[in-house]
Amino acid sequence: MSEDTNLSRRDFFKELGMMGGGGMMLSAFPWLQSCSADDKAKIVKEKVRIGFIGTGSRGQFHLNNLKSNPMADVVALCDNYPPHLKDASAIFPKAKMYADYRQLLENKDIQAVMIATPLNEHAHMTIEALQAGKHVFCEKSMAMTPQDCFDMYNTFKQSGKVLFIGQQRLYDPKYIRVMEMIHSGLIGTICGIRAYWFRNNDWRRPVPSPELERKINWRLYKATSCGLMTELATHQLQVGNWALKMIPETVTGMGDIVFWKDGREVYDNVSLIYRYSNGVKMSYESIISNKFLGLEEEILGNKGTVEPEKGKYYFEDVKPAPGIMQLINQIEHKVFDNVSFAGPSWVPETASINKGEMIMDHMTAHDGASSVGAAGDGTVELETAFCEAAITGKPAKNLVEEAYYSSVLGLLGLQAMEENRIITFPAEYKIPYLNFA
Amino acid sequence: MSYSNYYAASQLYHGSMSSVMGTELDVLLIGGEEAYLNNVWHEIQTEVVRLNKLLSRFDEDSEVSKINRDASSYAVSVSDELWQLLTDCKRYYEWTEGCFDITANDFSKVLLDEKDKSIYFLAETLKIDLGGIGKGYALKKIRGILECEKVTRALVNFGNSSVLALGTHPCGDYWPVDVDNPFTHERVDNLQLHDNTLTTSGNTPAHPKHIINPKTGMFVEDHKMVSVIGPDPVAGEVLSTALMVADEDSIPAITKKFDLYETHLYKLC
């Protein structure tokens, strides 16, 4: 990854105007504010001793990032599949190796654990780790059932420990900027959201011998996975809620195995509608046998549209001079800097195709083809924020709430498809947040 | 068509209007409640639409069209507002030694009669085009609205070539504005605006031929650009256009007439 395509953390905040002392961020993105500048200065040389559970492809993606994170000291690795544990050991050769996570949790030297195991392991591992007094980072989606998500949330609240869920878009600079733009009224009132993730691959990993099929390809079987809703949709459902500052009340949809009839149990083709109390609908589609449309969360307002994955925004009719939008951004962040717009008379393009504008400079977009992770998608910032929180002991405000609702909404969507009906968000699973407070 | 948004945190109102005077207008108003600034923006829009109609030579019903149709047959009486503009244009024609000419041909063949405020063309093919000062004149009128409404901080960008800066940027002592080379997009200058206007003339890759030298009838095709900073946006339009056309020897005499104006000539590659 070159400097041009990868934002450093410093640039990340600079891009957002934090350096300029802008005030907008403070209230709108509380999870970014959990570690104050004073705290950051205090912990600058500290490290957190991490035990890492689940060292498959996503786990190794994290471990490779953590290798260059000065706050992360990975002292233990755990996996019940020896080849993955061996791979991870090559990244952190000094780390102690475990086959059973319970033994890792007994290690008093470990302050925090990070969990990147199959979905069916998330809930009990997270709960046991919190109860063992560890700070926890658990990959999304949270769990297999709303009850398990709810138990994780309650355990977190009672534990007084830090819990992070791997919703990296919460730390992705372009998403933060997009949400600022949306919440400042740039695209007007949100009237609809169209979210989708399209890939064209079988979602399979090579299996060394047949008895390992369900272990390696855990994503494809109902005992270990909820399929597209927990692996892909949760990220995007969270974006919709973030934009609207609301949680949808009902969901319905249909799911099928259309193309990959290879013995898998989870849908390869889903289409759902989530309805918010103000009548706005968020549609969600995922097909993994055609990749033409890629992934996106199209957020449609009466004055404009944003496409955060591509990092673009569009006005309905008028196209303000790009330099003017930059100037507005600077004023909003209390930045005083030169802006380019003056020049010879400008005749705007009259092309019928609205090409839109880029949300920010030095931006990273990815095509969504990887099921491991992509450079510049907020994962590094998320890991860093977790390390900071684990050192200070201060949880990231609202982060678990955002993750909780996107996880539960994914599961309710799955239930709606399986039962072929409209599901209303169950009162017993509402936690005090946003419109459900 | 127009767009507007109010950024409450910084009390910033942004209004944008397209397809007006052949380009786009962006207005930033700072300080005040949304309803109040929204009202100011509506006043500005109404005025700009009126001027677009008054000054257009493409609108058959405009006063300018009537002049272009009839002034070679008889002396056409004009409104006070247009009369003022025409006499200003005459003065600017003289000050720029003919480099600024709303006929793009020979303004000396335009007769302006003070007594009945009429215009008559001595040549049948003569036509006037006020497009060259239209945006500047609109900025002048917009400034009037802003002063009347007691808006003290504003930045108005009319098609990039005509910029009005009222007060200062909220976080600085002036409005910082970069001027870019339209051919390379590299920065050629950074200018500081404060209660004044910036006008820029030049060719661009998309429009390499749009400024006519009235003395030769040929397009100015040089890769150069002229920026003018000063109090009156109409004079700014005149001076920046004239300096695109003028030969180097006559530039000092012209700029001397506009002694309140700071001029920047950029040779572009």
Secondary-structure map with pairings?
The complex is a heterodimer of chains A (437) and B (269).
Chain A: H1 9-15, H2 24-28, H3 37-42, E1 48-53, H4 57-67, E2 72-78, H5 82-91, E3 96-98, H6 101-106, E4 112-115, H7 119-131, E5 135-138, H8 146-159, E6 163-165, H9 173-183, E7 190-198, H10 213-216, H11 228-244, E8 250-256, E9 269-275, E10 281-287, E11 295-301, E12 304-307, E13 312-315, H12 322-332, E14 339-342, E15 357-358, H13 379-392, H14 399-419, E16 423-424
Parallel strand pairs in A: 1-2, 1-4, 2-3, 4-5, 5-6, 7-10
Antiparallel strand pairs in A: 7-11, 8-9, 8-16, 9-10, 11-12, 12-13, 13-15
Helix pairs in contact in A: 4-5, 7-8, 8-14, 11-14
Chain B: E1 2-7, E2 12-20, E3 23-30, H1 34-55, H2 63-70, E4 76-77, H3 80-95, E5 110-113, E6 118-121, H4 131-148, E7 153-158, E8 162-166, E9 175-180, E10 187-193, E11 196-202, E12 212-213, E13 218-219, E14 224-230, H5 233-245, H6 251-257, E15 262-267
Antiparallel strand pairs in B: 1-2, 2-3, 3-7, 4-6, 5-6, 7-8, 8-11, 9-10, 11-14, 12-13, 14-15
Describe this protein's structure:
The complex is a heterodimer of chains A (437) and B (269). Chain A has a nine-stranded mixed β-sheet with strand order 15-13-12-11-7-10-9-8-16, covered by helices on one side. Chain A has a six-stranded parallel β-sheet with strand order 3-2-1-4-5-6, sandwiched between helices. Helices cover 34% and strands 18% of the residues of chain A. Chain A has 14 helices and 16 strands. With 269 residues, chain B is of the alpha+beta class. Helix content of chain B is 31%, strand content 30%. Chain B contains six helices and 15 strands. β14 of chain A pairs parallel with β9 of chain B.
